[in-house]
Design goal:
The chain is an alpha+beta fold. It is built from 15 helices and 16 strands. α1 runs antiparallel to α5 and α5 runs parallel beside α9. The chain starts with 11 loop residues before the first helix and ends with a helix. The structure holds adenosine-5'-triphosphate and magnesium ion.
Amino acid sequence: MQLLRGTKDILPDEIILWQYIEKTAAKIMKLANYHEIRTPIIESTSLFKRSIGNGTDIVNKEMYTFIDQNSREITLRPEGTASIARAFINNKLYKNHTTQRLWYLGPMFRYERPQQGRQRQFHQLGVECIGSLNPIADAEVIRIAHKLLNELECPDYTMEINSIGQLEERKKYKQSFVEYLEPYINDLDNNSRNKLYTNPLKILDSKNTKTQEIICNAPCLYDYLEAPSKKHFEKVCEYLEFLNIPYNINTQLVRGLDYYNYTAFEIKTNSLGTQDTICGGGRYDSLIQELGGPHMPSVGWAIGMERLLITIKNQLNKKIENNKPLVYLAVDSQNTEKEILNIIQLLEKKDISYNLDLDNNSLQKQLKKADKQGAKACLILRDYETKNNCITLKKLSTSEQQQFNIIHINDLIKTLKNMN
Ligand code: ATP
Ligand code: MG
């Protein structure tokens, strides 16, 4: 049986890194009053059509959608924000009228061409700050992303930021932009040509050199923004400067999803090649209202866990101590099972990690295995120990051996604890 294309098993060696990221994120979130939320992986297809938007690649090409036994149209979530907006409304999280700060981590699904940093099942870690129009909220979520990446020692990343204004402003801009592009229609790359009348703003994102050359002289979205949009953007930039968070303004930055307004940002790293964006986010002031909830201006981001991991794997591996068992239990006798079970319970009680050899190998082989697995000590139980009511401790770094009478087992535990 083969693994499905674009999916990956995450094996124990790598899980240690995931757990480290999760722990670091949870700590930062807790300090900033962000609370974890877990929503279902399946949702009604209409949720994503209405929120992400019909002209987008996600809705048009990338969703895993199926009909269930009761003829409902169901989609595996391609991102987190829409589900959180739905959960926010369904559970009336707006009822105490304060800003809600939420974070999540979980698998997302998009039918894309798998390559380095691009999978069909991938994971996003994200935050949503719901209920504030204050530009400090934008700065807050950006600061949290920045703090997390710094704490994880993510190398060489830069943040790009832009304001994409309000729907009306974008409408006017789209019109001028399309008019500008029409004479060049045959020179655009295929993908951009297809987007000219469906989702023209995404053409700004094109990586094609010819298309980029054409765009160079196109009208600029920023010039179509009115005072409130500009003021919000200036404030966000001012706070970022105050916080010493470096950023570049990229007037061509737009986001793939329809529901964004005002602030849009992306964090990129130089160590990833083409799939270089590790974090994407922005403000979405009308989404919750559009889905049937109250007016709740919001801002958030999502980090792609797999891309983040590619960039920080080496540093993390050096930093994180493997969860190696401290004690290896080597048994060379037929009659010691019950004693071993007793010792295991005792070790557990004292938080000492252990690995019991189950292979019935010779003691010599067991000691070698203990060493190979990085255990610090070996507890040896042979007929000799049973006869003498004792247990032998062998320190693997020095090969020094010591015997402890079962009556003085606490001395053994103390010695083990000191080795930790
Ligand atoms: P891209 O331009 O790379 O397709 P996107 O704009 O579709 O990204 P978002 O929807 O903003 O991505 O998702 C936020 C983050 O999630 C991305 O910056 C990326 O790190 C990660 N991500 C998105 N799609 C995938 C995928 N198919 N595989 C792995 N990570 C992904
Ligand atoms: Mg994409």
